[in-house]
Design goal:
Blueprint lengths: L4 E2 L1 H14 L5 E7 L2 E7 L10 H6 L7 E8 L8 H9 L3 E6 L7 E4 L5 E2 L2 E2 L1
Parallel strand pairs: 1-3, 1-8, 4-5
Antiparallel strand pairs: 2-3, 2-4, 5-6, 6-7
Bound molecules: zinc ion.
Zinc ion binds next to strand 4.
Length: about 120
């Protein structure tokens, strides 16, 4: 499934989660329907912080319509860290990072190679 966009409500939820979990980081999984991201899956047992990639991978339920991840950078820019890049390479095709001030301009999607990826907001 090629992911080309994200529902506006889903994007707003990801931004709102960044706000409400501040000053902590959050990480969730994303699901999509017909190429549009429209589902957010909280991950039980997720540990906040940039070193949680291995725990995160173990918690992915099998058989879900998983297309990628989203997480926040409470203080930093929306640029993937080295830990993020290894998570991206191992998991889905689209990865969203949200950051301050958690409005519609404060996020960026990346592909599994860490290259910026355009998503239509629908
Ligand atoms: Zn990160």
């Amino acid at each position: 499934m090629f992911v080309r966009g994200i529902e506006k409500e889903t994007l707003h939820l990801l931004l709102e989660m960044g706000k409400s979990s501040y000053t902590n980081e959050y990480m969730v999984m994303l699901g999509a329907d017909e190429g549009i991201i429209n589902i957010v899956y909280p991950i039980a047992g997720t540990v906040t912080g940039e070193d949680s990639a291995s725990i995160f991978m173990d918690m992915i339920p099998l058989g879900m319509g998983f297309v990628g991840t989203a997480h926040s950078h409470p203080e930093g820019p929306t640029i993937p860290s080295d830990a993020d890049l290894s998570t991206f390479a191992e998991t889905g095709q689209v990865h969203i990072i949200t950051g301050q001030p958690f409005n519609e301009t404060a996020w960026q999607a990346y592909d599994r190679h860490g290259q910026p990826k355009h998503l239509d907001i629908l």
